[in-house]
Amino acid sequence: MKPSSQIRCSMNRPNFLKMHKYLFIILLLTIQIGFSNKIKNPIDPYPNFQQYSFKNFDFEDCDACGCSANGGSMGFSSMIDQNFVGLRYMYQSYQSRDGVFNNSPWVDENFNTLQAWGRVPLTDRVEVMALVPYHFNNRENMVGTQNIDGLGDITVMGFYTLLKPKMDTLPTQHKVQVGVGIKAPTGRYDSENNGSVNPSFQLGTGSWDYTVAGEYIVKRKNLGFNAMANYILKTENDKNYKFGNQFNYGGTVFYSLGSEKFTVVPQAGLAGELYAANEDFNEDVPLTEGDIFFGKVGVEMGINRFSLGLNAMLPITQNLTGGRVEANYRIGINLNYGL
Amino acid sequence: MKKTFRNILIASLFSGLLVSCSNDDDTQQETIEGFGDAELFFDNGMAGDALILGGSKTNSNNETLTVNRLNYIISNVVLIEEDGTEYVYPKNESYFIISQEGDMHTVHLENIPAGDYTQVRFGIGVDELRYLEGETAQQEFWDYAAANNMTWTWSTGYRFINFEGTFTSENNSEPLQFQVHQGSNSATDNYREVTLNLPTTARVRVDEMPNIHIIADANTIVDGTNKIVLSENLNTAGTNASIMGGENLILIAENTQQMFTVDHVHNGGGSHQH
């Protein structure tokens, strides 16, 4: 036995798990209360920010291939209303090499996600966000089509607004938000799938994961810029597998066109994801670390309280799982209802 | 009201983060006892590509080989723990044949002491000690080997590697046959062992079977440290390159020490598909 180098806290595991469930329930309840109270920003002093702050938090990619991808670097964006509930469909196209040789065949992998999402204000400065994904993924290999369908990992996050414009009449407006969140292992993790080259062909990580996030928005007249970064700390699941911690970052330029009733906001930006190595029984799994850098374009349109968003991401550079997995592109479509 | 909710939210989120450090708590000193299984999976390749019988690959001797057969004997398997402790698989049961045409890729080992293994050692062929035990002592394996084209006569012994096909070269644009039959003979003992490091630990437990995925690069047999040019080994009629004895077998024995690498270890259980 190798000496164990883990930090040990005093809590034992069963209590710890219960604690998680308890916290998670509290968070869900909190959201429900948020909905039922229909708390709207009472004064809404900064309508520009409220309407056009592009949320680019990418909380969800559990790994390079998004086994529980609730968005990856696709962002968490709404232009018509910062606070909303909605549905989002995401498609991610990957290919991975089915074998260990240079001439091993490439297998197409399709990750489809239908996600209920929402972002609800609790107070003037505090918001809660939830993502509930349903995945239907498939891949074609030599023996046929393999499908996995089901609920993915549910994420709940809280955000606190550190800085917001003092007056909405200022020509240049800055806003800073920070957030923390939990991802629950509601998606099935099947260790058998990990025998394959792409260990991420999963519905979830099987682990409780934690996120810290920060976002900065600056806007001058119709032109705006959003910068965001977040870090996802992943833990070991009950199959003793741990997906690598993940750092996401991105920047998006957006421009608001249109009138009060009909708005169009084109956007373009760059986004990146960095992955640490996965671990199996506390040992690094070779060729699981990686990075990918995307260019992205999108547009959002709003009529009354509804908004429709379309966006696409294309990799500029990538090095995922030692070159054995390649991302082709991602597209997203969302329909939101502003609260 | 609002303040209360906010406080609950913030407190619960932060406390969630604070307790997260206890997640690895279950790695308490696990008692490792009992016996389990392990598998060595041999994935045959040709210089980085998958070996496909009937497929062609040009080697660094500028000869294009079309391989029609690759069979070899794996023997005397030893699993080694990080502290150097060796588990020697029972010798009488430690002879296996890997055959591309027979779709035989797996060495299945049973009743291995549970443990964390970091190296594997095995022999290529049949060692002299075993051979000298005589025909009756190993009748079963001899018959099995014979059925897989891995024997000459008893007096000349086992073929350790049977590597056959056709080749073209600068000297022959028409394909000619080749046979590489590695083995020991009265002059030299060409049995060799290799010790491979595992990139991650192979965990043998009562209910966990590691699968050690090994790549066997058939190209190294004639195109390894030592270069054996098939067209320089033609028979007098110039129709066939047959390598079954002499100095070449010593060179091949040396080449096969670089033939095997471990690609990865799959822990847990179940069968290995790739």
Describe the sheet with the most strands of chain A: 12 strands, antiparallel, barrel
The CATH topology of chain A is given as: Lipocalin
Determine the CATH superfamily of chain A: Autotransporter beta-domain
For the sheet with most strands of chain B, the description reads: 9 strands, mixed
DSSP strand tally of chain A = 17
CATH class membership of chain A: Mainly Beta
- Estimated share of beta-strand residues of chain B: 35-45%
Helix segment count of chain A? 2
Q: Which assembly state applies to the chains in this document?
A: heterodimer
Protein model, in words:
The complex is a heterodimer of chains A (339) and B (274). Chain A contains 2 helices and 17 strands. By secondary structure, chain A is mainly beta. In chain A, the strands form 2 sheets. Chain A has a 12-stranded antiparallel barrel. Chain A has a 3-stranded antiparallel β-sheet with strand order 9-13-14, with no helix packed on it. The radius of gyration of chain A is 20 Å and the shape is globular. Residues 1-19 and 25-71 of chain A have low confidence and may be disordered. Chain B is mainly beta. Chain B has one domain. Helices cover 14% and strands 39% of the residues of chain B. In chain B, strands 3, 4, 5, 6, 8, 9, 10, 11 and 13 form a 9-stranded mixed β-sheet that branches. In chain B, strands 1, 2, 7, 12 and 14 form a 5-stranded mixed β-sheet that branches. The interface between A and B is large, with 58 and 49 residues. Chain B: It comes from Aequorivita echinoideorum.
Layout of secondary structure:
The complex is a heterodimer of chains A (339) and B (274).
Chain A: H1 13-37, H2 47-52, E1 84-97, E2 106-121, E3 126-141, E4 144-151, E5 154-163, E6 172-184, E7 209-220, E8 223-233, E9 241-242, E10 246-255, E11 257-258, E12 262-275, E13 279-280, E14 283-284, E15 290-303, E16 306-320, E17 325-338
Antiparallel strand pairs in A: 1-2, 1-17, 2-3, 3-4, 3-5, 5-6, 6-7, 7-8, 8-10, 9-13, 10-12, 11-12, 12-15, 13-14, 15-16, 16-17
Chain B: H1 2-18, E1 35-46, E2 49-50, E3 56-58, E4 64-81, E5 86-88, E6 95-99, E7 106-113, E8 115-124, H2 128-131, H3 139-147, E9 161-168, E10 176-182, E11 192-204, E12 211-217, E13 240-243, H4 247-255, E14 260-266
